[in-house]
Specification:
Blueprint (H helix, E strand, L loop, with lengths): L4 E7 L6 H9 L6 E7 L6 H6 L6 E4 L5 H11 L4 E4 L5 E2 L3 H11 L5 E9 L5 E4 L7 H6 L8 E4 L1 H6 L10 H10 L5 E11 L5 H4 L1 H16 L4 H14 L7 H23 L4 H21 L1
Parallel strand pairs: 1-2, 1-4, 2-3, 6-9
Antiparallel strand pairs: 4-8, 5-9, 6-7, 6-8
Helix pairs in contact: 9-10, 10-11, 11-12
C-alpha cells in the first residue's frame, strides 16, 4: 500500500536547520507519511542528524548535480499519493499536512494545492507574510505569489508534467508552477502552512541579481516576453547593488536616472523594445524625482 503522502527534502550543509525541518514534518503525526532526504554529500553535522532518525526516514548522502537534481531524485523515489517539497531550512506549521490531505480527499479533481506562508529568520522568528493571493495564472506570470514550501501536489502531476527543469538553479519552482498552471488551475488553501527561511547566506538573498536574471530568461524562453514588473525588479536589484541609494533628494534623483537607464537596457535585452506606456511610466518617475529638487533649490 502506498504512503498517503511523501515529503521530499533536498539538503546540503544545513545541519543547523535540518532537525527543525524534519521535526516539523514528524510533529504533524500523519499516519502513512514517507520522509525522503537527498543530501548532496554534506560535510557538516547533517548526516549525523539524519542518522539519528533511524528508519523513520529514507536518506541518501552523495554528490549530486545541484538542488534540482536532488529534488528530482526525491520526486522519483516518492511513493506517496501526494507529494510535498520542503527545503532543509524551511518548516511546516502544525496541522498543515492534515489540512492539505483533507482538501485532496474532498476534491478529487484538485491536483495542486498551495497555502499561505511566512518568511522566518534563522531562529524561526516571524519576519513578514509571504505575498500570496487567490489563483490567477495571468498574475502568476507577473509575480510569483506561490511560496514553494506551501505547495503540495498529487504524484500523478509528475507523470503529466514531468519533474523540475534541472538546468535552473534559482527559479525551478516558479517554472514548475507556470508549466503545470498553464494546463490546470491550483487550489488556494487560505491558511498558513509553512515558514520559508530568509537569511544572508541563502540563495534568495545571497544571489539577488542572478535570481532575477534567471527568472527573466526563463519567462522569455517560456512566453517569448518578460512582464514589465520582472524587468523593473531586475533593474532595481542592479541599481541597488551598484551602490546607488535614495537617502536624500539628490541621490534619489541619481538613483531614478540610473533605474530608468537600466530598465531600458533590460527591456531591450529581453523584449527587444521599450513599450511606449513604459517610457511614459519611467518619465513619470523622473518628473516626480525632480520635483523636490526644484523646490529645494
Amino acid at each position: 500500500m502506498n504512503p498517503r503522502i511523501s515529503i521530499v527534502t533536498p539538503s546540503y550543509n544545513q545541519g543547523k536547520f535540518i532537525k527543525r525541518t524534519i521535526d516539523s514534518v514528524f510533529d504533524q503525526e500523519i499516519e502513512g507519511l514517507e520522509m525522503i532526504v537527498f543530501d548532496g554529500g554534506s560535510t557538516d553535522e547533517t548526516v549525523e542528524v539524519l542518522e539519528s532518525y533511524g528508519d523513520r526516514l529514507f536518506y541518501v548522502s552523495e554528490k549530486d548535480k545541484g538542488q534540482s537534481d536532488a529534488i528530482n531524485k526525491g520526486f522519483l523515489k516518492a511513493r506517496g499519493d501526494v507529494i510535498g517539497w520542503l527545503n532543509s531550512d524551511d518548516v511546516y506549521y502544525p496541522g498543515s499536512i492534515s489540512a492539505v490531505l483533507e482538501i485532496f480527499a474532498k476534491y478529487p479533481e484538485v491536483d495542486v494545492i498551495y497555502g499561505k506562508a511566512d518568511h522566518i529568520d534563522e531562529e524561526d522568528g516571524y519576519i513578514e507574510d509571504y505575498y500570496t493571493e487567490s489563483w490567477d495564472y495571468g498574475k502568476l506570470k507577473e509575480i510569483c505569489f506561490i511560496c514553494q514550501p506551501a505547495v503540495f501536489f498529487r504524484r500523478s502531476v509528475l507523470e503529466k508534467y514531468g519533474v523540475l527543469n534541472a538546468a535552473l538553479r534559482f527559479c525551478m519552482d516558479y517554472e514548475f508552477w507556470l508549466r503545470i498552471g498553464q494546463k490546470k488551475g491550483f487550489y488556494f488553501l487560505d491558511q498558513k502552512v509553512a515558514g520559508s527561511r530568509l537569511y544572508a547566506e541563502n540563495k534568495t538573498l545571497g544571489s539577488r541579481r542572478k535570481v532575477h536574471e534567471e527568472i527573466c530568461s526563463m519567462l522569455n524562453d517560456k512566453f517569448g516576453t518578460v512582464p514589465a514588473r520582472w524587468i523593473y525588479n531586475l533593474a532595481h536589484v542592479i541599481v541597488e547593488e551598484s551602490g546607488e541609494s535614495r537617502e536624500n533628494v539628490e541621490r534619489n534623483l541619481r538613483f531614478v536616472k540610473s533605474l530608468i537607464r537600466t530598465s531600458a537596457k533590460c527591456f531591450l535585452k529581453y523584449n527587444k523594445k521599450v513599450p511606449l506606456n513604459e517610457i511614459r511610466n519611467m518619465f513619470g518617475w523622473y518628473r516626480e524625482a525632480k520635483k523636490p529638487a526644484k523646490g529645494g533649490g
